Each structure stands twice: as C-alpha cells, then as structure tokens.
Amino acid sequence: MDKLVVSFICIYRYYVKILVDINYDTMLCIEITGFLSFYLDTDLGAVLRRIVILGGGTGGLAAAKHLSESLGTDAQVTIIDKRDRTDFRPSYLYVMMGYREPSQVSAPLYLVEKRGVRFVRAEIRGIDPGNRVVDTSAGKISYDYLLVSLGAETRPELVKGGPLPHPWELDGALEVRKIVRGFRKGRLVVAVHSTPYRCPPAPWEVALLLDFYYSGLGYRRDIEITMVHPFKRPFENFGPLAAKMMEGLMSERRIGWIGVGKNPAVEEVDPVNKVLVTASGEKIRYDALILIPPHRPPEPVARSDIADPQTGWARPTPPTMRTKYDDVYAVGDVAAPSLRLGMAGVILHSYLKYPLASIISEIKGVYISSEFRVFGSCVMDVGGFGMAAACDFTKLVLGEAQYPDCLFLPPTSFSRVFKEMFEKQYFAWLLGYVPG
Fold it and tell me: Whole-model pTM?
C-alpha cells in the first residue's frame, strides 16, 4: 500500500471523527503505519527532505555520496550542474604536457544516479534563499537544504590584451599543449594574473614540469623559464620556511622569479609585441606566455545575499559552513577566499564532514560532531618526482595564525606514483568508474 495513501486515510479519519471513537482511530493509524514501516523498511511518518547541491565538482560529488549513503530514503539528493561531465582538475596540467587525454580525466555526471542521486543538467540562474528556491534553465527547484559548491570561474577575457590560452580549463590545456610542443628557444613566462586562483601551488608545478620536459628533449639550455606572481616570494602563503625551500628548488632548476608584490600582478598583455606589463610598471618580454587568468565567483552566488558584498564570494561560518541562512551551506572554491583558504579539493575533503553532519543531524534527530580541524595533503609534480606536503589550516581559518602549519617532504618517485593513483581513486570513490 502506498504510504501517501495511508497518510491521507489516517489524517482524514483523525479529523473527521465519524463512526469510530477518535482514540481507537488514532491507534489504528499508528498500528497501520508501524506495520507497513516494518515490512517496507521505511518510516512512513518521515518527511522526505529535499537536499539540493549546486555543482558537480569535488565538493558536490563527495557531499552527494555521503548524504545519500547516510540518509537513504529519508532524503532526495539532487545535483545541479550546467555541464554533463565532471573532471579531475589537478590532471589538467598532465593534459597540457600530453601525459593525459581529456577522456582520461573526465567522467559523465549521470553516474551519480547509480547511488540514488538525482542529476539535473541545467544552468543556475539565481538563488532565492528566502523562498528556498533555485532558479535554473530547467525551471525552479525547491529545497529543504541547499549546499552551494559551484567553484570559481576562470575569466581570461578580463585580462587587458586577452583572452590568452591557459591550462586552468580542459580546453585551454589542449591549446597550451600546442604552445609547449612547438616551443624550442627563447623566454617562456608562466604568470599569474591575480589571486585567488584554483590550486595555489599549481603555477610552480607548471614551471617545474616544463623544466623537466625541455630538459628531457635537450632544449632546456636554449629556454629561459620565468615566473611572474603577485607574491613577493614564492610560496610565501605557506610561510617563510616554505618560501625559502621553494626559492632553493627554483634556483636549482634555473627558474627565474619576478615577485610583483601587488594584486593583481599583471596590468596588461601586448600579444602582438609579446610584452607583459606588471602592476608595478615592469615590462617583461616573452616568446611564449602561459597566463593563469583571473578567477571570479559564479554570478548566481555573487548576486545573492549569501555572498560577501565586497567580493562576491560565498561567506559561510565555520565549522558548520552555514551562510546567513540556517538551511544554506557553502563549501569549496566558492567559499575559500572568505575562509582564508586556498582553492583546493584536498582541503575541502577535511572540513566537508561538518556541514554534512549538520544536515544529517537535523534530519535524523541526532547530534553528530567531532573536533573542528581543517587540513590538506597533496603531491606536486616537480618533474619526474612528486613533492608531498601536509598542512593544518585550522588556526588560519579561525584567525589565530598568519600561516598554516605545514610539513614538506623531499621529492620522491613514490610520491609521484601516489599522485597518479589518486586520480583513478577519485573517480572510483565518487562515481564507481575509472575513465579509460
């Protein structure tokens, strides 16, 4: 018997009060509901909660998996994304170098449906927390809980003299691959327009991968690699010891450094004359340029009142990562600048459990908690080897420290193997699928 029908029968008999005594009738409804709940293995008195997740990237997929497994039939979990595929973005640089093809670092989002998660491919047009509605190209979608994990958008058109190819998107990585393969002599500049941007260490990874690639081909002696960055010192966001360590590595690999000390660092680019002008007025000539573009919050977030009005990035409050609304949460890159965190999935993994525990606690009627801690560990490919790092960001997020507490391990071949293994494990864990 359908539980909705049973519910209507019980409600009708309870309120109309005809033919039978009210107390007997109420008991009858309870007995029917309990009998069916036992045999159908579901709570007929429970309300199906609608959990909507905006974004099918790392945060959205990890949240959907955990919520669907924890709540089962107590909730309907929905992911909304304008794309029909999800990518392992750390491997964009491997696509740039020709070590991977797009099909190897991407998977269809409909695979989430195997886990009982609903997928809606639609563009998100607006968020209306007051009415618990998300406006999309597929219509208005209501929710009981909303988790915003829309990431950050690359905006190369905002560069004066741009847009220019860059490997921070999959299509752009293929364009940069052509530049890398055709370059044999001259000055190659790896520049960061401004912070924040996805994966803070990745520009150094680009430079080190290029050094390794051209060294292997025998062209490195004819190629000058220079980095341009808003930071005064490389890796200074990880603290002075990390900066000193990276300065040593770059010197050893003959990678030049221009620390602008201003944000944005790049004023404009003249692609005709091949000149990059920094914010301090320095003109840097190049023969090839890889420019990491500005990153901006998605418009639906920036226009909503869950965002910081000054920056447009979502502004949640740790540890639950709730916004100003009790039923709206924000995680990942879209919230990272407000939390003083880098845009990285490995950091998100550590604190995602807190907003999910908050949602599950409310639905299940139990309190789930653990000590608040934000940390991340990753491996940076420095060319032939992997350099592992582990950082605790907890005090940084809470405003109790200027830098994260980090440990860096020397480059090893094992760490690089681990980095490649994690790429496959990522898809297997979240989607039960490994791209070929």
Answer: 0.87
